[in-house]
Amino acid sequence: MRDDPIISEIRRVRHEISGRVGHDVRRLGEHYMELERQARPTGQYRFAEPPGKPEMAFHDQPGNSK
Questions:
Q1: Which residues have C-beta within 8 Å of that of residue 66, sequence separation ≥ 6?
Q2: Domain presence at residue 22
Q3: Domain, as residue range, for 37
Q4: CB–CB of 35/3 below 8 Å?
Q5: Which DSSP letter does residue 61 get?
Q6: What is the pTM of this model?
Q7: Staple 60 to which of 12, 26, 39, 56, CB 3.0 to 4.6 Å?
Q8: Cα angle at 61 between 7 and 48, to 5 degrees?
């Protein structure tokens, strides 16, 4: 199977972003939730919403883990 340069670039960037948070899955999730929190008000992006959950719940917010 031939390596796809686009997939390789995506993997490289994802690894770089993960490295910024010490490859910690919780911090990585918080990082992406913060990006979403900042992007939502701009109206520039569309976000899929789970059924019955029109917006992120308080416990889904960065820094609100148990």
A1: 59
A2: yes
A3: 1-45
A4: no
A5: S
A6: 0.62
A7: 56
A8: 50
| 21 CB-near residues (< 8 Å, 6+ apart) | 27, 28, 30, 31
Is residue 16, in this structure, part of any structural domain at all? yes
> Is the residue at 60 inside a domain?
no
Three-state DSSP state, 40: helix
What's the angle, vertex CA 9, arms to CA 8 and CA 13, rounded to 5? Answer: 120
Give Rg (Cα) of the chain: 15
Q: How does pLDDT run across 3-58, given as a tens digit for each residue?
A: 899 999 999 999 999 999 999 999 999 999 999 999 999 989 888 877 876 555 55
What pLDDT does residue 5 have? 95
Band of pLDDT at residue 66, cut at 50, 70 and 90: very low
